[in-house]
Structures are given as structure tokens and as C-alpha cells.
Design a protein that fits this description.
The structure is a single chain. Helix content is 42%, strand content 16%. It is α/β, with parallel strands linked by helices. Strand 4, helix 5 (136-145) and strand 5 (148-152) form a beta-alpha-beta unit. Helix 2 (58-71) packs antiparallel against helix 11, helix 3 (86-99) runs parallel beside helix 11 and helix 6 packs parallel to helix 7. The protein starts with 6 loop residues before the first helix and ends with a helix. Bound molecules: pyridoxal-5'-phosphate (PLP). Pyridoxal-5'-phosphate binds next to helix 4.
């Protein structure tokens, strides 16, 4: 009988189980909302990136339904062959205007936007200077580009400067940071990094996945928040988090976007967004422009919840955004915290190594504009109870 050539995977999975790093997928039985049902349990949901409640917003739903009625469910092609519809072009025009740049290209996800862009614009002769906590899609893009990768400690601009001082002046360099770091909720030091990029002739790139719809005027992101318009050469945003649907985009000059049309592999080799997604994203930009009060509500909820966790005595790191980590230490403790909270009716996913350092395992909480005060107080009460049980507070 043939021996299973994949049997080693079972061994690897057993090792994960022994280290408390094995994950079960929680299954959502209802809509992606602030109060919903996972695994047949009614919970306050602190685990989605649905910052503004747009996954279920009536205007997005309606536009998506109309698009399905009119155009069907798929595009049947990549963008560069037969898969570009008028609504893809409209979405890109709208995003370019929203982000105050010359042009935008939309990708299938934020992940492909990062990986596809970095790998397209760099070669093996180039170098990337990257924050150690940058998102996996940036790291994969760097690897695919075959450029040299130089990592600086988190937010340490002086360390980035020292790396740059050791590089030949004529080498092409990309300086890259997340706008909001996804596991800690802190912000990239954009003003200092932009200055450094200008001093040293680097291309400056910011991944604003968690800032899109959250920071800046009407949710324009950290570039707007810090007043860095015109100083960041490549901005990446996502349509999968606060925008409520799916996708990523790159914002920059016409030449950058034109080049990505010709060289970014996910754009060239993977099918474009179905009509419902493109239509929902267009509607989402209108909502950001016309209903900015949902962003104000997000921030009111963020302040209420963060201060509640701090009052209870939890270690919440250095977050400056609606992402608030509750740091538990080792992975077993973080998973226990998450599991006990779930039993108490609160879903806050445990995040463990390799996503975060081994001794910084945590549950990650994200509040949304659609949580009620009762939802958030209920969650705080559960955190207080379970935190005491586990000796965290
Ligand atoms: C910082 C960051 N960049 C990019 C992405 C990828 O975005 P998307 O989910 O649209 O692929 C994520 C999502 O996890 C993220 O946190």
C-alpha cells in the first residue's frame, strides 16, 4: 500500500496542539455584526474588522443586489483580458478622488495589493527597509521581489536611518510601514519616516489597511491623519475591513498605476471582483462621505471600551486605534482567556505565536461603531470576571 507522502503534516499538527498553538475555526451562524452568533452561541463580537458596520449597511446591500440583478455574479476574466467593467473603473476613479491622488488600482484583496505591488516595483538589485511588525503580505511581497530585506525594530526611525546610512546612495530603496499595526493597534511614525525617505531618496510606502475608513477626514487614512499628502509615494488600502466588502487598492501617481497594470501579477493573473463587490465598495465610499457620524461613533466607542479595560487593570499595550490588545503572556493563557470569554458571551480571538511574539500572546479586541453601550459594558464585565479568574487583573 502507498504510504501517505503528507503524513508529516499530521506530526506538525500534533506539535501545534502540544504547544497550545492549534486553532479551531469559529463558525459565524449569522451576519457579521456587533452582536451575533458564532458556533451557535450568541456573543458580543469583538473580533471583526467591520469597524463601521458596513458589512450589513442597507445602502451597500441594495447596490450589491442591483449589481447582481443587472450584471450577474462574476466577471469571468482577469482585468487585463475581459474582466474590467465600468463599475471597476468608477470605483477606482472614486477612490483616487477620495485619497487625493492621481490614480488608483483595485486588487482582489489588501494582501494581493501589498504583495503584488512590492514584488512588481523591485528587483533583486534593490533593498527594502521594513518595520519588524509589518504585515505578512508586505513580507511576502519583499520575498517575491528578491530584493534584499533589512528589518528595523518596531517604529525605530533611528535604526532605519542607520540601515540607510550603510547602503550605496545609488541603490533603489523602499521604506515601508503599516499605517496602523494590526496586532497592536499603534500607528507607524509617518512624519519621521517620510522625512527620512526624503533625506535618503527612498520610495515611501504605507499599508493603511486598518486605517482605511478609521483615521483621517471621512476615513481617508493615516496619510490624511498626519497631513502627509504628497509625501507617500505608494498608499495601500483595503476594502475588506472598514469598507465592509472585499478588496485592496494602491493609490499613487498615474505612472505607478499604469506600471502595476502591466506588471503586478495578481492584477494580470487573477480574476477581477464580481459586480456585487465593486458596487458595494462604490456605495461604501458614498457612505463615508455622507455619513461621517459613523466614524465619530466608532471613536466614542473606542474611547469608552479602552478606558474600561485600562480601569480594570489589563495590559493593553500602546494602542492608538480601535484595535486594543489584551496581553495575557504565553499562548496557553491567551487561549484560555479567549475561550472563557466566549463561554461568557464575548468573542475576542486569541492571537498567538507566530502572529505575535511568544511571550506577548493576547486576545485582540476591535470595537465598531455599531456596538451599543450595553454590548461594550457586557464585554467589560466579562473581561473583569475572567481576568480575575486567570490572575490577569
Ligand atoms: C496591515 C494589513 N495589511 C493588509 C492586510 C490584508 O488585507 P485583506 O484582508 O484585504 O487582504 C491586512 C489584513 O489582515 C492587514 O492587517
Amino acid at each position: 500500500m502507498r504510504q501517505d507522502p503528507l503524513s508529516y503534516l499530521g506530526d506538525e499538527l500534533n506539535a501545534l496542539k502540544q504547544q497550545n498553538l492549534y486553532r479551531h475555526l469559529r463558525v459565524l451562524d449569522d451576519e457579521q455584526k456587533a452582536h451575533t452568533s458564532f458556533d451557535h452561541r450568541s456573543v458580543v463580537n469583538l473580533s471583526s474588522n467591520n469597524y463601521l458596520g458596513l458589512t450589513t449597511h442597507p445602502r451597500l446591500r441594495q447596490k450589491a443586489l442591483e449589481a447582481v440583478e443587472k450584471f450577474g455574479v462574476g466577471t469571468g476574466s482577469v482585468r487585463t483580458i475581459a474582466g474590467t467593467m465600468a463599475m471597476h473603473m468608477e470605483l477606482e476613479r472614486k477612490l483616487a478622488e477620495f485619497k487625493n491622488v492621481e490614480a488608483v488600482v483595485v486588487f482582489q484583496s489588501g494582501f494581493t495589493a501589498n504583495a503584488g505591488t512590492v514584488s512588481a516595483i523591485l528587483t533583486k538589485d534593490d533593498v527594502v527597509i521594513s518595520d519588524e511588525l509589518n504585515h505578512a503580505s508586505i513580507i511576502d511581497g519583499c520575498r517575491l521581489s528578491r530584493a534584499a530585506i533589512k528589518v528595523f525594530p518596531h517604529k525605530d526611525v533611528d535604526a532605519a536611518r542607520r540601515i540607510l546610512q550603510g547602503l550605496p546612495a545609488d541603490q533603489r530603496k523602499l521604506l515601508i510601514t503599516d499605517g496602523v499595526f494590526s496586532m497592536d493597534g499603534d500607528l507607524g511614525p509617518l512624519p519621521a519616516l517620510c522625512e527620512l525617505a526624503e533625506e535618503t531618496g527612498c520610495i515611501m510606502m504605507v499599508d493603511d489597511a486598518h486605517a482605511s475608513g478609521v483615521f483621517g477626514k471621512n476615513g481617508r487614512g493615516t496619510i490624511d491623519h498626519f497631513g502627509m499628502h504628497g509625501r507617500v509615494d505608494i498608499q495601500v488600502g483595503t476594502l475588506s475591513k472598514a469598507i465592509g466588502a472585499l478588496g485592496g487598492y494602491v493609490a499613487g501617481t498615474k505612472a505607478l498605476i499604469d506600471f502595476l497594470h502591466h506588471r503586478a501579477r495578481p492584477f494580470l493573473f487573477s480574476t477581477s471582483h464580481p459586480p456585487a463587490v465593486a458596487a458595494a465598495c462604490i456605495a461604501a465610499i458614498d457612505v463615508l462621505l455622507e455619513e461621517p457620524e459613523i466614524i465619530d461613533r466608532l471613536w466614542e466607542n473606542t474611547r469608552f471600551f479602552k478606558s474600561g479595560l485600562e480601569r480594570l487593570g489589563f495590559d493593553t499595550g500602546l494602542s492608538e486605534s480601535p484595535i486594543t490588545p489584551v496581553i495575557a503572556g504565553d499562548s496557553a493563557r491567551a487561549m484560555k482567556l479567549s475561550d472563557r470569554l466566549f463561554e461568557e458571551g464575548v468573542f475576542a480571538q486569541g492571537i498567538v505565536f507566530p502572529t505575535v511574539a511568544k511571550d506577548k500572546a493576547r486576545v485582540r479586541t476591535i470595537v465598531t461603531s455599531t456596538h451599543t453601550r450595553e454590548d461594550l459594558q457586557f464585554a467589560l464585565d466579562a473581561f473583569g470576571k475572567v481576568g480575575k479568574e486567570l490572575g490577569l487583573v
